[in-house]
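Can anyone check this?
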Amino acid sequence: MDIFPIFTDYLIITLKQHRENHIEIIDFLRGLAALSVVLFHFATSSIASIKPNLVSDFFAWGKLGVQVFFVISGFIIPYSMFLGSYKLRDFGVFMLRRFLRINPPSYVAILMVIGLYYSAIWLVDRPISGMYWPGTDWKTILANLTYFFDFLDSGKYIVVYWTLEVEFQYYIFIGLFYPIMILLSKKTFWLVVAFIGYACLTYVPFLEEFPFFRMSSYFIMGNLLFLYKQNKIRRELFVPLIIAAMLFCNFQQGSPYVFAAVIALLVIAFVRFNNPVSSFLGKISYSLYITFLFSAFVMEIALNRVLGSSFEEPLKTVMMIPYTLWAIFFAWVFYTLVEKPFLKLSKYLTTTKK
C-alpha cells in the first residue's frame, strides 16, 4: 500500500482544520496589544533618553494592552481546550504544553538581560540608566523561574513579567475549572453559581498573594464569550452575565480597563480582519513583549555613544520610530531562533490521548 497519498491527504485535512479553527482576528489583537505596551513603555517609563516626549500622554493608554491580552487568554485557552476535547486527566500535558510555549523563551530573555547588566558594569562601571535590577539572591532567581513574584515578594528582571505570573496562575485555574464549566454549561443555575464563586475567589484572604484573582474579571469575560460562541450558553444568559462581569471589572480595576476589555470582546466576537502585517505582529507578539526592553536598552547604549546621553524635542518623539522598528526586528529574530522551536515542540504534545 502506498503510504504517501495517505500522508498527504491527512496533512491537507489537518491544515484545513487549522485554518477553519484559527481565529485570525486574535493575531491582530495580540499584535496590537503587544505594540501598545511597547509604545507605552518607550514613551512614558523605560527609556531615559526619550521620555517624556510629545506623545507620552497619548501612549499612556498603551498599558491597556495588558488587559486585552487577559481577555484573549480568557477566550482562546478554553477554545483550544474545547478543540482538543480536554479532560481533567489531560491537566499534566496541558501544563507541560503551556510551560514549553511560555517559559523557555522567557528564560532566554532573562539571561540576555542579566548578560546586558553585567556587560554594562564591566564596560562602563555603572548600570544602564532606567534599567531595573532586582539582584541575584535565591528568592529572586526562583521567583523569575516560577513567576511567583508576589508570593515570594521578589523583583523581576523584566518588569512586564508580572503578567506572566497572572497568566500562569490562570492556566492552572482553567485547567481545573474548564471541565466544571463545560459540565455546568447546560445547567443555568449552577453555571451562574460557579461564575459567582469564580469572582468571589478574589476576596479569599489566603489567595491575595496570587494576582490572577485580582485580574479574574478579564478572564471571566473571555470565558463567557467562549461559552457563547460555542453555543454552550444562550444569549439570554450571556448578556446579563457579561454585564455582571463588566461591573465586577469596574469594581476591581476601574472604567478605563472595562473599556479596553469590552473593546477586545467586541472585536473577537464581531470583527473579521486579517492582513500580512497583523499576522506578522500577532506571530511575534510574545517575543516582542518579552524582548522589547532588552532591545531598547541595547539601542540606548549604541545611540548614546553616537548622539550623546540625551535628546531634545522634537528628536525625543521622532526617536520613538527607530526604537520601535528595532524592537520589532529584534523580536522577529528572537521568534525565529528561540520561540519558534519551542512552539513547535509544544505542538507535538496533545491534550488528549488518541
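Reply from J.R.: I decoded it. Confidence is low (pLDDT under 50) at residues 1-19.
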